[in-house]
Design goal:
81% helix, mainly alpha
Length: 300
């Protein structure tokens, strides 16, 4: 083996390690979002918090796209598609799930929402004609078994509020529909512009509901709220997407989707470490089939 071959292999190893580190960072950030939201929700109603987050994150992302690529150019179809996707993936999904997290734990919400890839595979089979292999069917079955165990553990033990659980499940369904809609509509405009417009649209659409349903006087400007808000805007809305955009351009993007099986245990871990949320043994028994199910469904 020549010195050039050795150097090439070392460089490939560095790229692989760097890609793996980014994937792990993405999973950690995404899973931690639920605990961060729970902290911020103590001092601000969920819809007002989301409206402000979406507006700031959307403006920043569009500003970045404008600075890098020049003035964004979207067709009417692209703009309409992005607004519709912003309604489902931002306003409805997070509006319902964050409202539910007022009365349920962040770890429980993270486990429910983490089943998104499993339900997307099921819906995509009917709407997009994607083939359901035996591996995906097995993953779906395991995922549903795991969710049933977690729901029995939490609701049967009186640890979670039923109304809050229904809201989080409603948010999950909106995210699933929004994900399949994105595949169907395939809007143009670029990743930064597309997510910026979706975020702004979500903020505009959720603000009337905030004004109608929530009391602005309930907002308390505390360090916890400021920290949680900044984390959600910069680390999650912008940072996570920036990492994901980078991974989409590399072979590690496939590995990133497969590693979504880390989300359920990480969500429970962050809830336990940061917020002191209880983790019953039956939760752990339910998380295992969910994680394996996600791995089977997303494996290529």
């Amino acid at each position: 083996m020549t010195s050039a071959d050795i150097a090439t292999r070392k460089a490939a190893g560095v790229r692989l390690d760097g890609g793996l580190l980014l994937i792990v960072l993405f999973c950690l950030l995404w899973s931690s979002a639920f605990a961060a939201a729970k902290i911020a929700l103590v001092d601000c109603p969920p819809l007002f918090l989301l409206a402000a987050r979406f507006a700031l994150a959307g403006a920043l992302m569009i500003g970045v796209a404008w600075a890098v690529d020049g003035r964004p150019r979207l067709t009417r179809r692209d703009l309409a598609s992005l607004v519709l996707l912003g309604a489902m993936n931002n306003a409805v999904y997070l509006g319902l799930s964050w409202s539910g997290m007022v009365t349920v734990s962040s770890g429980f919400a993270a486990v429910i929402v983490s089943t998104n890839p499993i339900l997307v595979a099921l819906l995509a089979a009917g709407v997009l004609g994607e083939r359901l292999t035996w591996r995906k069917v097995a993953g779906l079955a395991l995922g549903f078994v795991g969710v049933a165990l977690v729901l029995r553990s939490r609701l049967g033990g009186g640890l979670e509020d039923l109304h809050g659980t229904i809201l989080v499940v409603g948010g999950l369904l909106a995210l699933v529909v929004g994900t399949v809609m994105f595949k169907r509509l395939a809007p143009g405009g670029g990743l930064w512009v597309g997510n910026g417009v979706q975020s702004l649209a979500g903020g505009v659409l959720i603000l009337p509901a905030a004004l109608l349903l929530e009391d602005p006087a309930a907002i308390r400007m505390t360090p916890a709220l400021a920290g949680g808000f900044a984390y959600m805007v910069f680390a999650i809305s912008i940072g996570c997407y920036a990492i994901w955009f980078h991974l989409l351009g590399s072979r590690s993007a496939t590995a990133a989707s497969a590693l979504h099986f880390l989300m359920p245990p990480l969500g429970l871990l962050f809830g336990w470490v940061i917020l002191g949320e209880a983790v019953p043994l039956l939760d752990l028994a339910g998380v295992v089939p969910i994680a394996v199910g996600i791995l089977l469904v997303t494996r290529r």
